[in-house]
Design a protein that fits this description.
The chain is of the alpha/beta class and 267 residues long. The protein has a single domain, classed as Rossmann fold (3-Layer(aba) Sandwich), CATH 3.40.50.1820. It contains 9 helices and 9 strands.
Length: 267
Amino acid sequence: MNQFFGTWCAVIFFGIASVAVSQAEEWLGEKSNFHGFDQYDFQVGELQCKVVVPKEVVAGTPWVWRARFFGHQPQVDIALLNQGFHIAYVDVSGLYGSPEAVARWDAFYKFLTADKGFSKKPALEGMSRGGLIIYNWASKKPEKVACIYADAPVCNIASWPGGKSASKEWKQCLEVYGLSEEEALVYAQNPVDTLKPLADAGVPLLHVVGDADDVVPVAENTAVIETRYKKFGGSIEVIHKPGVGHHPHSLENPEPIVDFILRHTER
């Protein structure tokens, strides 16, 4: 009996050790520290990726998909890591939410959901120009989105970088979209134009904006989203920061944003 018990315990111990090793080896690439959590930088094909891992993964493996400016104003991400969320990022810099950026997101989504078992409905988080990719991807895949948190988001390339038409960013944006300036100014596939699929799918939106933002004006971006989304029957909350410009992003106390994401994600 004692011999059997000892053998059984050894098998269990070996199994636990194997699981621990498997979990330790789950993420490859360069390991670093993200505010006390393990961050991994790695490649999937030609994609440059980052994942931050919570100390305890909760059922369903929820995650926040960060768009652009990884690590900037991290208070929401840190709070959600403490709730068991992963934070994920794939580099689409210089692509302004163009079809090439959407294709990169498609590939990364497939990797995380099919290969890593992440939830099939992440929360999307986009600051400033990150608004272009979160909306351009989500409008094509509304059934794969839990909710959207957009912070001072660009929602129309004619507003930014088009509103600064002499800028290097505007010229680069035209190039990646394959549009002339005249075509871009009347382009009808911006986030402000493609909201109905999201409203029909019941995707909730939260925008945080500075009312004095003169880089990404509220009137040309979030206000248009809000009016049109409500017209389509969609749910949108807008948190206004009176007297604040384009910066700083987020909220000093991120609780309203965190609560929004927790309410609308499956765990």
